[in-house]
Structures are given as C-alpha cells and as structure tokens.
C-alpha cells in the first residue's frame, strides 16, 4: 500500500474533514486469500494478484449513470470516510473493485496502479499540444509520461533539482526550476511562435496558479491536480477576458484504472524513475515520519 499526499494531510492533522481514528490506504493491492461463498465472479481465484479500485460508487446517481463514476454523490473511498483502507494485514473488498494482475506482476507495484490512474484521468485525452506541468513529484512524473505517450510537447517546472533531473530522464522537452526569475523568457524562447495550450498544476498554491494564468494562451486550459492547503484569490478578470478554461481533475474512472494497469504491464509507463522506499507494514509510523522528511520519495508499506 502506498502513502499518498492526502494520507499525509490526515496524519499531520491538516485535513479539515477526516480525523483519526481511521485506517488509511487507498493505493493498494494484494493477493486473494478468501472468497465469499456467495461470489458469482469466476474471474477471481484464491492466490490471484489484484490491484484494488478504491472507489465504492452507488451506480444509480446521475454521475454513475453517465460514466462519471469518480463524481458519484454517494461515493465512499477505502482509507477515507468510514471504510478502512489497505494499511492493515487483511481487508475485505467487493469483487467488483478487484482488477486482476498477471502472475508475473511484482505485487509491490500494485500500489502504483492508483497514481497511474490519476495521471491517466488528467492527461490521456490531451494530444498534440504544448503542455506545462508544474510539480514533478510522483504524480507529475506519471502525468508527464502520459502526455509524452500522446505526442505532446512537455515543459516541466519544479523547485527540486532531483525531480527535474528525473523529469529530464523521462524526456521532458524542457526542464526549468520554478524559482528561476527568467523562467518565462526561457519558455517563450523554447516555444517560438507557439503558445502553451495546457498547464497542469500539480502543486496548487498561489504562486503556481498565478503563473499558470499568466502563461496560458487565450482559450487555453488550466487543470488543477494539486490540492491547495489555503484559500487562493485569483485574477478572475484575466480568466474571463482571456476565456481561460480552469478546471479540476478528481480521482479517476474504472476505465482509467484499468488503462493504468495496462500501461504498467505494457511498459507504456516507466516506473523506474519513481524513487520507492519500502517499509514493513509494522513500521508504519516510521514510514510516515520518513515521508514527512522525504516528500519526493514514494513510500510503500509491505505486509
């Protein structure tokens, strides 16, 4: 099971809604040990490796009926709400939430299907565009790869030199430190006569959003992925007058999740640049402390 940024918000007490006690963990997979005798699913067998689609949706609301199941109004999420997540030795999961993995699949990577699904939901429909990604931690690097897979030109910005080096290794067309005072000049020089079609903000603070609004072309798209920790005042007049499309990207659909699994299996997504740190499940507190001090690492708990 992976430790996500939202898990860290809960652990650090800055999530305004979710408070302990709660069993965290929505990025998880495992091996089937027991199946209900009432099961009608013949695809899942004992011993099967699976990734867990962590959203439990009603299937009846407007959004579920119209294939927007990530926006279900009655949604519950493993590791959130009252549903215990994957940071435990065993967890009961509805069969419909299980996604089969090949026998050869390294079970450690089952926890990466969820973040790849996040990236797929953000960027899989963007093609042949000039894109800026702000923040290339785990999610940003995965989004970058989905963008490159779809023949986009990608510029990445971060304040962490190691993250930028990883981004460069994954064929970013241009990497720039966000603190560079000449970043706009460098971007414009790289673009020539072209413009930025889409900015994907994986940070979500005042500075990154102001930059996004100022760099995007008229009628361009700004996609918010990073969750702001505070309220942010935006230049609404510029958004209005330039007809900027500002939208969020929230979770993923089951189709996104299945695609993500296939992308990993078929090596469409290179996870070698995701810097993993693995802890035993019984060292969970140590893992959270480590994650606090190493936010660029992808921390995974293994039972």
From TrEMBL:
The keyword Hydrolase does not apply. Pfam families: ADH_N, ADH_zinc_N. Residues 139-260 form the Alcohol dehydrogenase-like C-terminal domain. Residues 1-103 form the Alcohol dehydrogenase-like N-terminal domain. Keywords: Oxidoreductase. GO terms for molecular function: oxidoreductase activity. InterPro entries: ADH-like_C (IPR013149), ADH-like_N (IPR013154), GroES-like_sf (IPR011032), NAD(P)-bd_dom_sf (IPR036291), Zn_alcohol_dh (IPR050129). The keyword DNA-binding does not apply. This is Enoyl reductase (ER) domain-containing protein. It comes from marine sediment metagenome.
